[in-house]
Amino acid sequence: MAGIFITGTDTGVGKTVATAALGLALREAGVNAGVMKPIETGAQLVSGRRRGEDAAVLHRLLAPGDPIEDVNPIALALPTAPSAAARLEGATIDLARIREACARLEARHDVVLVEGAGGLLVPIDGKTTMADLARTLGCPLIVVARQRLGTINHTLLTLREADRRGLRIAGVVLNEWDPSGDPLSEADALNLQELRERLETPVIADLPALALGPSHTWSPAALAPLVGRFDLDPLVPNLPKAPRPL
Ligand SMILES: Nc1ncnc2c1ncn2[C@@H]1O[C@H](COP(=O)(O)OP(=O)(O)OP(=O)(O)O)[C@@H](O)[C@H]1O
Ligand SMILES: [Mg+2]
Questions:
Q1: What CATH number does the domain containing 74 carry?
Q2: Substitution candidate for ligand 1 out of 72, 148, 177 with most atoms within 8 A of CB
Q3: Contact, 101 vs 34, CB < 8 A?
Q4: Domain-embedded: residue 14
Q5: What whole-number distance in Å separates Cα of residue 154 and Cα of residue 10?
Q6: What is the mean pLDDT of the chain?
């Protein structure tokens, strides 16, 4: 287990939230988890360097000792697909640079959680997609799916495409959060059940929707209700039964 690539059925489905909570769960179980957001778009300029919000959150919560340049080697300004953001800046996204950064992080950690941008077929350039990035990093996938009408189709399509490309799927995370802020209705719960019955890969977490204030910050305390939701066995089968202290 060197790297795990966290993708989703779409942008904004909870990949960063799931990655942070999974990282904390692994750490609680005594696994030294690192994090990476190899490509982030919509990154603000802070003290002369582009700073992606996802990378900043994951770095702060899980691996503040790692160089941010390795956690987030590619940060681009435009909040679009990486291919479009790179094109606007006349930049080339260098997969070798990402591979090297990932290898350095893997040398420092038991496992590195790598958060993709958007979903599996988001383009990096004219030829490569997030799926190719996962492959070149040699990572199995975790697919984050958000509960909403349409998620059965989005999730099964993502899993099928991963399978078609020979990518291994380590698990699915079902995120009950919905942008409407409405609680899970009976219809939503039934919809999720229909999805669950069609999955051939394990659901490693059901994440409840947290009630967050308008100016919340992600902290271990804020994420605590999600951390205990992960079944780590499919990811790390030989964990000690009694968690080691951090
Ligand atoms: N379980 C949850 N409880 C409460 N809020 C949530 C939950 N999951 C996601 N959210 C909200 O949805 C927002 C988007 O989630 P997140 O940033 O994790 O998505 P993402 O898939 O990483 O998006 P991107 O494609 O931009 O990287 C979060 O900032 C948070 O406000
Ligand atoms: Mg994110």
A1: 3.40.50.300
A2: 177
A3: no
A4: yes
A5: 8
A6: 93
